[in-house]
Recover the amino acids of this structure.
């Protein structure tokens, strides 16, 4: 820099200030400086006033301190260090933000105006100065005193350099200035621009490093947080199969701690061919069923494995960096399946109506049973409410678990085994490719309700017994056992004790099922409940169809009280639905009740019907004959009868016929 022009610049500035002579025409004034003088004049800056800086408001200062925290923390220690190294006095260093607001000032304070954090020293306030010009030009500048717009700064020499962030955005300026009168000026000033540009460079590098570290720790934190909330176990292995990461759920599933797994080969805690496979061929595995023994229990999980490959890789075999294993509880999937197939219990103990003392005692016993996780056998005539009790017990003990109901009499014999136990892919002709879990597997952690258990085929009984004893099930055609835990509630209207004596039901299975027994009394044995139950059903039906609840006439009450109700509560419910639908007015008369209730077949009047067979009897006889002729073949019998197979099953159930 040529310091001999000092006086020439001073003169040019005075001519501009006093005679308004265009400074751009002076050969001694750089064009950027001349233009800045013109802007300063237009801003109304007074060049003869020594202190004219403004302060930010206290609130603005707080915001600024937060915004520039990282820059201040990085730059200030460096500035202090450089200043302490300078033996000569008379130096001042200034750090500003990109708008020209002071962030830090340090040095020979006696010789510079008293400025502090938050002071605005921008071009529009203090006129042309080195740091604002360097910010405008986005490059280092060196200033001789008279370049400054204000006269009182004429004796300074200043070097300013911009500071950029990692994205190339201007975030501040670094300035060093000294008084012209100081000794050794040529020598020192020649170096000062070099000092501050290298300092700014060092600040920028440190900032980049800090920012990169911050981003890394943010992304690490995000990853950790994500892995912690992800449902299921997550394990990351490197390409050699060594464990790089495992989340808490993963540890819980495997029954191990992070310390035991990290850096260890996966085979130490999880033996699986699929994992070995993907480490070799890099091919993802999705939804593979797996059984894991965590040292205490064996549980079923669904495992998916994903290869980790660089984003730009097409051929994963060459560049597998590692794999991510995801383990989720199979119960989540089963729950979904059960929700879809409506495998849940709707009734609870509150839904069981009745005030008969004997009946209430049974409800109390059932409540006790629900607290103990043991199998229950419910005996009672058809329609007495056996399933209602089963659902209530289930809901009182494990409402979250599935309630899988199986009607043993309605299930086709040839399908019962695969329905109950499931099957592996290709186990038999017509089996699905991937196989299917059975109802017992789906009942895991819930209740398996075996309705009409007396109709469970004898050949299936030992298999069911084994499942109940060993608490594990093997699918048809399968090779491995799947652990299961469920409560069996079975129901029967047949006397299983007699069936055991007649050897049509296995004794060992009977004792497994009948840990607790419930005997539901028929409706005729609790006459006090008949009218209240009838009214309960009338009310429910009227509400459903949105009409006023009709009253049960005295005559109707007499009829239903005297009737024997062979179909029990179900028959009473159906009769009340019928009566509500038939009644036009507000009263249900005896004539509104179904015929079989008002004119029951009694020993006295049965003679009238003896020569004529009822439709029901005719159907039963026809079905029996067809089954006999076809050697119990349902498909052929249905063919002979001109019925669909499912209709025939329904009728067999309805008439309680064996096949
Ligand atoms: N005490 C009761 N309170 C209210 N409703 C009842 C009661 N008992 C039975 N019901 C109703 O009667 C109908 C038949 O009950 P449920 O199906 O439980 O009988 P079940 O003994 O299992 O019959 P089945 O032996 O024919 O399978 C259901 O609609 C049930 O809600």
């Amino acid at each position: 820099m040529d310091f001999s022009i000092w006086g020439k610049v001073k003169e040019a500035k005075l001519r501009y200030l006093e005679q308004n002579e265009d400074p751009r025409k002076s050969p001694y004034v750089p064009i950027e400086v001349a233009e800045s003088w013109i802007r300063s004049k237009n801003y109304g800056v007074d060049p003869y006033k020594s202190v004219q800086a403004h302060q930010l408001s206290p609130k603005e200062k707080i915001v600024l301190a937060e915004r520039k925290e990282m820059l201040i923390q990085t730059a200030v220690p460096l500035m202090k260090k450089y200043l302490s190294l300078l033996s000569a006095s008379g130096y001042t260093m200034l750090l500003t933000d990109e708008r020209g607001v002071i962030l830090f000032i340090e040095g020979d304070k006696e010789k510079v105006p008293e400025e502090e954090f938050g002071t605005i020293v921008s071009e529009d306030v203090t006129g042309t100065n080195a740091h604002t010009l360097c910010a405008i030009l986005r490059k280092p500048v060196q200033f001789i005193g008279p370049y400054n717009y204000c006269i009182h700064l004429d004796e300074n020499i200043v070097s300013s350099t911009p500071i950029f962030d990692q994205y190339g955005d201007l975030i501040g300026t670094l300035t060093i200035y000294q008084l012209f009168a100081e000794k050794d000026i040529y020598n020192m000033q020649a170096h000062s621009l070099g000092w501050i540009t290298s300092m700014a460079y060092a600040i920028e590098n440190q900032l980049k490093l800090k920012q990169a570290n911050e981003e890394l720790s943010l992304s690490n934190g995000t990853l950790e947080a994500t892995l912690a909330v992800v449902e299921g176990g997550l394990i990351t292995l490197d390409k050699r199969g060594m464990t790089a990461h495992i989340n808490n759920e993963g540890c819980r599933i495997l029954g191990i701690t992070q310390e035991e797994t990290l850096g260890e080969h996966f085979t130490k805690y999880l033996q699986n061919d699929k994992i070995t496979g993907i480490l070799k061929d890099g091919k993802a595995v999705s939804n593979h069923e797996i059984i894991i023994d965590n040292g205490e229990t064996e549980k079923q999980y669904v495992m998916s494995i994903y290869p980790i490959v660089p984003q730009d890789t097409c051929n994963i075999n060459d560049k597998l960096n590692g794999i991510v294993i995801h383990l989720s509880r199979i119960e989540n999937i089963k729950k979904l399946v059960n929700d879809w197939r409506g495998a849940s219990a709707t009734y609870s103990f509150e839904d069981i109506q009745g005030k008969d003392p004997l009946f209430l005692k049974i409800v109390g016993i059932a409540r006790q049973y629900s607290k103990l996780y043991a199998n229950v056998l419910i005996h009672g005539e058809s329609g007495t409410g056996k399933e209602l009790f089963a659902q209530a017990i289930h809901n009182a003990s494990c409402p979250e678990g599935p309630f899988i109901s199986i009607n043993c009499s309605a299930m086709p014999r040839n399908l019962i085994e695969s329905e109950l136990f499931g099957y592996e892919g290709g186990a038999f002709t017509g089996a699905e490719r991937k196989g299917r879990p059975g109802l017992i597997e789906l009942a895991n952690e819930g209740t398996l309700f075996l309705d009409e258990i007396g109709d469970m085929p004898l050949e299936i009984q030992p298999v069911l017994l084994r499942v109940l004893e060993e608490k594990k099930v093997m699918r048809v055609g399968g090779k491995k056992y799947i652990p299961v835990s469920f409560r069996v509630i079975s129901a029967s209207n047949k006397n299983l004790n007699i069936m055991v004596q007649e050897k049509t039901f296995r004794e060992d299975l009977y004792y497994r099922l009948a840990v607790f027994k419930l005997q539901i009394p028929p409706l005729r044995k609790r006459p006090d409940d008949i009218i209240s139950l009838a009214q309960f059903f009338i009310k429910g039906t009227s509400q459903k169809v949105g009409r006023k609840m009709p009253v049960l006439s005295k005559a109707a009450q007499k009829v239903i009280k005297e009737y024997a109700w062979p179909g029990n509560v179900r028959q009473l419910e159906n009769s009340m639905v019928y009566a509500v639908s038939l009644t036009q007015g507000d009263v249900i008369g005896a004539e509104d009740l179904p015929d079989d209730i008002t004119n029951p077949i009694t020993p006295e009047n049965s003679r009238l019907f003896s020569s004529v067979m009822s439709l029901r009897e005719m159907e039963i006889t026809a079905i029996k004959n067809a089954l006999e002729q076809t050697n119990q073949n349902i498909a052929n019998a249905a063919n002979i009868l001109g019925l669909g197979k499912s209709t025939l099953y329904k009728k067999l159930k309805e008439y309680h016929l064996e096949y």
Q: What stands out?
A: The radius of gyration is 46 Å.
